[in-house]
Amino acid sequence: MPGTYSQIYLQYVFAVKGRENLLLKPWREDVFKYISGIITAKQQKSIIVNGVSDHVHVFAGIKPSMGISDLIRDIKNNSSNFINDQKFTGRKFSWQEGYGVFSYSQSQIKNVYEYIARQEEHHRKRTFREEYIGLLKKFEVEYNEKYLFDWLE
């Protein structure tokens, strides 16, 4: 019997509640590894997880049976529980509501990977707001400023 084969490449972008700079370097990598583990446990392909102190980029290959919103819900719920259980912040941690999700082709994987890997370098020149709105425009996503993340700038 023939099977169904596919691979959908998605980049998720989401922020710390209140856009606070809470993802600190001493433990940030642990959180990114944990998020990668969540993706793998859901039988999806974690390509790269990286970010800076106030937001995260997740690049993953997902199967059509995985709901886009289901994966990000599980990532946010489980990783915030992990951060709180580890007491990394000294207070209750949570992610901001909402997220961005953008799709890519196989030929774009290397460029997206490198872009996400260089987040700290990238954000020396460009704010998260500029980056996020740039992604929305690049992918021609209609949006209302009122419903975007809370911006600190």
Automatic annotation (TrEMBL):
One of the GO BP terms on file: DNA transposition
SUPFAM superfamilies: Transposase IS200-like (SSF143422)
Transmembrane segments: none
GO molecular function, one term: DNA binding
Gene3D superfamilies the record matches: Transposase IS200-like
Domain called Transposase IS200-like: residue spans: 5-119
NCBIfam families named among the record's database cross-references: transpos_IS200
Name used for this protein in its record: REP element-mobilizing transposase RayT
A Pfam family recorded for this sequence: Y1_Tnp
Top-level lineage group: Bacteria
